[in-house]
Model the fold of this input.
Amino acid sequence: MLEGVLVLRVDTCCKTFRVGTFGGSELLAVRDVSFEVAPGEVVALIGESGSGKSTLARMILRLSGVTRGTITFDGADISRLRGKRLTRYYADVQGVFQDPFSSYNPIFKADRVFTLIRGTYFPQLSDSDWQRRLVDALEGVRLDPAACLGKYPHQLSGGQLQRMLIARALLLDIRLLVADEIISMLDASTRVDVLNLLGDLRSRGLGILFITHDLSLGNYISDRTMILRHGAIVELGATERVFGHPQHPYTQALLASVPQLHTKWRDLDEPAPSAPGSLTPSGLGADVGRLVEVDHDHFVAVPATDESEVSFR
Ligand SMILES: Nc1ncnc2c1ncn2[C@@H]1O[C@H](COP(=O)(O)OP(=O)(O)O)[C@@H](O)[C@H]1O
Ligand SMILES: [Mg+2]
Done:
């Protein structure tokens, strides 16, 4: 955890969905997740598809309720925010999601996303001041205002639409950005621009929850890393610790699955190397157990049944 006032605290949060017909059954998509994001800190949330990353993001953005647990921002329980306080919350916390198309209504011009922000947050700004602010935000994400304003979503690329959404978040002086797989749809050169932009914003105090399934990206960008599996955090700690000394068998297996530069094609015909540590059912099972601190600010999930036997390196 970096120095500074706490911004976001997620405390033992759970989310269940009812799935299936005739009453169906309950799917526990997020299980007892707890973490914090401080100002100027980038926390990577890494997990496979379906591990609960977006569900968590939606709960933080109040797009989805919390089944159990609390999420606080500046000490205030976000589930209790109403009216002006909720509007204020969205001036501090914004989210950008993987699929930019879902944030636009195809029958309206794409820049309507900015007009809505203006109406709510900047009604007092003159047209020229608003225009200046908008152009700054667009140029901040390397978009040419002339190329994107006045166009319909289908006239713009996925990358342009995504960068417009990032610009929209930056029009407000937000303090926390929830970035859910935001660069998966960008081309390589734009990715670098967006990563540099995030680095810049972080150094100016923005807290970022950077959600990704891309291990190397998470390693590159974050100060701390959380590994999510089946909705639960199995490992959480300083990024160099989690990547340099992974302790949970699942983290070890994930890291071992990334091809190395020296991997030859013929090596791929051989059986996959097993991850260091044991891949026992308890280490990778559905029963996650509780997080135990194995080093300073480095936590690993220990199955409840195994706690007495666990010894970490
Ligand atoms: N609205 C919903 N109704 C039912 N199940 C859902 C809903 N949203 C997500 N899920 C389920 O919750 C789990 C986690 O989904 P999600 O948070 O989207 O994962 P990720 O973003 O890590 O890929 C998945 O099994 C998914 O099918
Ligand atoms: Mg997702």
Notes: Confidence is low (pLDDT under 50) at residues 275-285, 308-313. The chain has twelve helices and twelve strands. The longest helix spans residues 188-203.
